[in-house]
Amino acid sequence: MTLAAPRRAALAAVLLALLAPPAFAAETPPASPPPSAATAATETPKIGANVSTFQLPNGLTVVVIPDHRAAVVTHMVWYKAGSADEPPGKSGIAHYLEHLMFKGTKANPGGAFSKKVAEIGGQENAFTSWDYTAYYQRVAKEHLGLVMGLEADRMQNLQFDPATAAPELKVVLEERSMRTDNEPSARLGEAVDAALHPNHPYRIPVIGWRSEIEKLTAQDAKAFYDRFYTPNNAVLVVAGDVDEVAVRDLALSNYGRVQKRADPGKRMRPQDPEIDVVQSVRLADERVAQPSWRRLWRVPSSHTAEPGVSEALELLADTLGGGSTSRLYRSLVVEKGLAAQVGVSYQSDALDDGRFLIYAVPRDGVDFDKLSAAIDAEIAAVVRDGAPAEEIARSKTKVYAEAIKVQDNQASLARIFGTEMATGGEIERVRDWPARIRAVTPDQVKAAATRWLRPEGSVTGELVSAPPSGKPLTRGGATLGAPMSGPIRHGEAPAGFEPLETTLK
Ligand SMILES: [Zn+2]
Q: Which of 138, 143, 134 is nearest to 124 (CA)?
């Protein structure tokens, strides 16, 4: 029912991981060759060149992504409110509210929302993350007005009936058991997050701490709803066989009637201090069949970085761990035979700081000291010598190829633009991302490694197996092996969403 995934950069995830060989695939060759370097050198693609945006009088931001290849639309509403916006002591309320959003309004009581979407052959889903909560449907284009009406209704008329809210809390607690409590990798992820963020609410899991979830009430959910679920705090993304004029008309007649009810203002979370401690956490659990190792650094996101730094981190991640040509893969998997898997991910799309992750699965008999020493040596080599210009150029070519390919995926485009707008970004930032990547120099990549991949401030997580305890074991489901805790998704995902969630398994 649910999938866990680490937070990923919208662009990095979709462009570098979704369409490229999975970063953590052990021996997967590239799916298709990149276009010739000559093409990439002369043309820097733009992402979503025909995307437009406008605002309704009530403050709702609308993004239109025309895509006329099929008569379907992807309709998404993003609220600029996630778990990092929860009041202290109420962890899990953003996600609990997401569940309650399917429990009905006066006009559409009970499960009427989902029933109507199913009746027209649509797909729907929702997800909660640290920085946003989003709801979407994919339907035939003639039903766009219908789903807008449904979504606009629950934006303002949600009912908070304790009789339905209380049992739903049990569903959430069961979800917590499945995806975290019975999932050693996710539990380790929570400990790593707490160490990485001594002060910022990113330290708190999206699903919440069990002891706090247990105490949540319908009233808590309503308070969060009243504070954040107002049109001026939301972004509507419509991608598909529509144009801006049609979307504007439909949006005005549906969302235009929703009153602005609150003014959440700028999101100001407590920030993390600079720390120079080297931290390590370890979890031994008998459910662990395959030991794994991870190291994380807190680094700037595209929203907090100085110009060029986020882009340099993107290329650094690719150089170190992007697929079978990367340094870590060649060294640890191919040459030294120390690892069965190795990968790197840079999460750039956070509203506040992002994170840089190196993840590895040792081969049998290889201890973590040997593994981490080999990884350290590869980082040290980039810090000392930088990466050759041709290596950086190869990473750029890959990015351009993927930027072209992503245009073919309506849902991915909707998600990229939705994420950007829900975290305070701009359309232009997405559009020009390939150009900004292009401008990165090898020196900037070297500088990023030197500045950000220092041992000080890093957190290492080690997951190992423990001897059998003899107690009955409950195992988690879909999240087995997920290297970090992360956003929560529900229901079936249309093509284009799924890979984002499974890449880092
Ligand atoms: Zn859930």
A: 138
